[in-house]
Amino acid sequence: MVSTPSAAVPGGTMPSAASSGDAWRSILRIGLAGTVVGVYLALVGIVPVFDKRPIVAGVVSFGQISALLTLTAAGLLAARQAQSDRLAVAYGGLAGAVAGSGLSLLVLVGQVIDLRGLTINAGPDLYALLTAGLGPAGFWFPVVLGLAVGLLGGVLGIVPATPRLALGYGLVGILVLGLFAGLLRTPMIAGGLGPLARSLFASDGLTPLGAVLTFVVVAGYVVLARALELRARYAAMAPARRRALVLPSAVIGLLLVVLAPHILGPFVAHVVALVALYVLLGFGLNITLGLAGLLDLGFVAFFGVGAYTVALLTSIGPLGIAHWPFWAAVPIAVVLAMAFGGFLGLPILGIRGDYLAIATLGFGEIIRILAGSDLLKGILGGPQGITNIPKPIELPPDHPLFGPNQIYYMALVFAAIVAFVAYRLRESRIGRAWMAIREDEDVAEALGVNLVQTKLLAYMLGAAFAGLGGAVFAALVGSIFASSLTVFVSINVAALIIVGGMGSNPGVVLGAIFLIGVPELFREFEEYRFLFYGVALIAVMRFRPEGLLPSKITRRELHTVEELAEEVAEPAVDVELVGEAAEARGSEAG
Amino acid sequence: MYTSRIERTIDAAIAAFLWGFRIVVILVVVVGSLLTLQGGRYSGDTWLRLVIDGITLGSVYSLIALGYTMVYGILRMINFAHGDIFMAGAFGGYFVAAYFNRSGFLNAGLIPTFLSIGLMIVVAMIVSTVIAVLMERVAYRPLRNAPRLVPLITAIGASFFLEYSFRGFFGPGIYAYPSISILQEQILPGIIRFRLIDAVVIGAALLMMLGLYLFVTRTKVGTAMRAVSEDMATASLMGIDVDRIIVTTFAIGAAMAGAAGVLYGLMFTQVYFFTGFIPGIKAFTAAVLGGIGNIPGAMVGGLFLGLAESIGPILFLDGLNVPSPNQLKDVIAFTMLVLILIFRPSGILGERLAVKRA
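ok -> structure tokens follow
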């Protein structure tokens, strides 16, 4: 560092030439990282595909925001490198311009070489989008935009916390409300709020008026909350008064959860039913993964056992063997899945954690292949699967519990039961044994924990709840195919637990809403769902291995006392993540 | 240590179950094989053909397995994204092949074909290596001292990130490798059915494995790699730059996987964003079979798995009257993984790493 050659540094007016060289280099590095991310987002299709979803109608789309965020982030990060405020803004602008130059280069290269032969997203449409419709002649546009937005990022880096947070939360508010605008508009119009809905929401995204209003409300709330020190006041409140505040919001939240499918229409009803199903699965896997630390990537095997059991026992199609009612089939499905868990778990539970993940992954594939094979075709229907699975309660279409709604409530009730069981188990002797194994197998064994039996119990319980989830799934979809049992089911559940927070039930709910619900609601997200999972898993493991809403114990384990103390001192570390978490809590609690 | 009678009973039941499991597996294998051979529905020629197929496929598995085994040997980490590094190589090779196909060079004779294949392999190796080195730098290096599940989950994340990035870049469709007619010709007509492609795949794989073996055993960097895998702390005290050795390991493993990607593409003539998933898991199985952390083990394990997958379905299952046994070849591969973990967790040639309490 000391030996940095400063000769190549232009404009070395800084007090020390060496440190200014470092600063230039880090600006360049941040800018280049921004370049890579920007070009990646453009070519992987996120910018062009998400461009079809407006956030503020006629003004800005989600695709444009994804590019803008990259440039702003480059500016913000570069500004942090500066020693003085004026420099910070300049650094920000510079890094933003460097980041934008990658997109300019992409447009220019696209004129010389036909990139369409190489990637499917390059082409005139993308170039037009990147140059604000100017086409090849406007290749300079990304650089200028980067400069402007980078300057803004630099300014953001130096302003005091209150305006920064207000601006950040306000923009996040616009983003979130803009995404959900279409969903909110329909029920508002149906509920007689037509004029209001139309002035706030376009058919997709907010109207400009709606965006401004959203920003003012959210930013105003942030400014007010910080001025009045609401958080500190709440903390200082007497427990009784606090309860008086919490109870009504809990009741409203519960009411919203119960009424959600009715307010938001049949499409959303199906999605929330799916989210509830994944919450149920997540609670189940949380015992295996969160408490006992066994990474089970073959969760889908037991899900499949449960689903096929219910299908066989209740189907009114040709493959149904008993025509039982759903409620009689569920216990059988759970018991069978549990037995399967024991059967598959026994041979492999002696092996170490990371091997277990791959071995269970293999099990999941084995079950899927067997279910679709000719060998079991006579029983399980092969690729055609088993169809005509009746709903648990047959109802006329206008009944409030018709279709996915009853599955939603059923899944919620089951999830509550699983959460209760998990909670009671965690506080018990076996729960402590699980956590001991998770932390250190050798020590646990030395303390008298029977490793194989304790792990087996965790594995079988997880399997049982997976079977329950499978039963609910069969009833929800009405049919079950071998192709429904892909490894993605296991990955979905594991990802939502890990991102939400291992061992934490609120984390599972948050994870299910974000990783299952949001991609189901928006078709564009669906295509990039697993890309997002990948990024989320890497980022969570890197920056927040305890997950977004961790349980207290995991949090204590993964951070030192000093780190925790630091976080208490400065609670909002990551504006966007915390904003999302707050939004999720808000949507739960009303 | 106090154990209750119930616990002891359960333990005994577990042991009995495991023995029953072993006996059932052996019965299926022995009875199935005997019945198939007795049935005599398959000629010696067919068996020979299956063996050649198995060796060809197995050498590709071996090449991929090397990357798993080398990284595991040093970091004790399963690089779940290794299968996708392999897929990236297959894509890289595809674009070179498509280019030469358009220019007509690809099918212009024996030497141009071989030159093109050579270049495909080189490009694939470069693509895979660059991605793997970036991945190590961005995702894995910050987690060097994290608990064991953390790097594994990161690797799963990296795997999905790579797969769906490629899906974003190139779309969900299947890219067909251009056909190279010369590769389908028999080189030993009248003796056995042995196509040129089989020779190319086996030859290229053997050559690369030999090169790797010499590199690891004869060069200074190879010695450093072995030292780091033996004991990282001591190696770093001896003046070895551990970070550089780890990057080198990732790069070499990725280069092998990239080459395997091209060979796989030539064999199965197609590639898409999910191509790497199943071969990746199978190559991991091969690495475990041979003994993870052990380079010759990965080679042996790959061949063994390839043979089992090629011959197994017919040999074990056809005699038992299982319909369309070839559907179940993946089941055989994954069952082998589980079996090897029960019977001999150290693998065929390996150290005892799979079971913590050896």
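Chain A touches chain B through 61 residues (CB under 8 Å).
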